[in-house]
Specification:
- There is one protein chain.
- The protein is mainly α.
- It has two domains: 11-41; 53-277, MetI-like fold (Orthogonal Bundle).
- Helices cover 78% and strands 0% of the residues.
- The chain contains 13 helices and no strands.
Length: 278
């Protein structure tokens, strides 16, 4: 008997793949390739001179270190938020669930201005910490706070669907067999949510490295102290130094690509381990 050919609602692989590649090329690949082509006009020596200046290297370090710190905080706090939203029922749960996505909808400049007013020594939050001699605004701590605000949805929205699908009976079985809470979480729950947690962490990390609007107001933009790499790109563009701007942008693009590549590798390894445990 001849088997019937399976058909789907969406057109076949060839047409779907062609549409996908066309959209991906126009939206992502062509603009990024244009950046690389423009940078290729200069010599390697000029490129290295543009991207290895002391001020530029400092900007890389400020962006990288604060983004890593913010992503680490988001990994912990995002996991707790996702856990509370999935495992507990309480008044205002839906409102809080919708509030998580506010950083996505809010213009980054608005977020930066609001956080700056809150964190300056005369603001509500800044005045509280100023009593203990801790300054938030116009420091790297302030940059980290802004990046935590913009990056927290990535972790919550990555982990939350996995927790919703996770069967609570496995956790209960581990508890009945004598496992403590921490052991049950580490051996039963964490392996299942680890790929999603890694994904949320790296997405928040990559977003933080390229963040500009919410950071530029609270950073203070002091060279060698709180000046971020995206601000250096904008400064070079304002001075019509397109070569330096595109060179720095290409380095930032490479860093972001490497972060996402590491994300894919780590997720693959974590998924294989979960499959092996299962």
């Amino acid at each position: 008997m001849r088997r019937k050919k399976r058909t789907g609602i969406i057109p076949g692989f060839g047409l779907s793949f062609g549409i996908m590649m066309a959209l991906l090329s126009f939206i992502v690949l062509i603009p990024l390739c244009g950046l690389a082509v423009y940078t290729a006009r200069i010599s390697p020596a000029e490129f290295l001179a543009a991207v290895s200046r002391r001020r530029v290297l400092s900007g890389y370090w400020v962006s990288f270190s604060t983004s890593l710190a913010a992503a680490s905080v988001n990994a912990v706090m995002g996991l707790i938020l996702a856990w509370v939203l999935v495992r507990y029922d309480f008044p205002g749960k839906r409102f809080l669930d919708g509030l998580i996505e506010l950083p996505f909808a809010l213009p980054t400049a608005v977020a930066g201005i609001a956080l700056t007013h809150l964190c300056v020594p005369g603001g509500w939050v800044g005045a509280l910490f100023d009593r203990f001699g801790i300054r938030i605004a116009y420091t790297r701590l302030g940059i980290t706070v802004a990046l935590v605000f913009t990056g927290i949805p990535f972790v919550v929205r990555s982990v939350q669907p996995v927790l919703e699908k996770l069967d609570a009976e496995c956790e209960e079985a581990a508890r009945l067999l004598g496992a403590g809470r921490f052991y049950a979480f580490r051996r039963v729950i964490l392996p299942e949510i680890l790929p999603a947690l890694i994904s949320g962490f790296t997405l928040a990390f990559a977003r933080g490295i390229g963040e500009y609007g919410s950071v530029v107001f609270i950073a203070g933009n002091t060279p060698f102290e709180t000046e971020i790499a995206p601000l250096l790109i904008m400064s070079e563009l304002q001075e019509y130094d397109y070569v330096s701007a595109t060179s720095i942008a290409l380095v930032m693009l490479t860093i972001s690509f490497l972060i996402l590549l590491v994300n894919a590798v780590l997720r693959s390894v974590a998924s294989r381990r979960v499959s092996g445990i299962a």
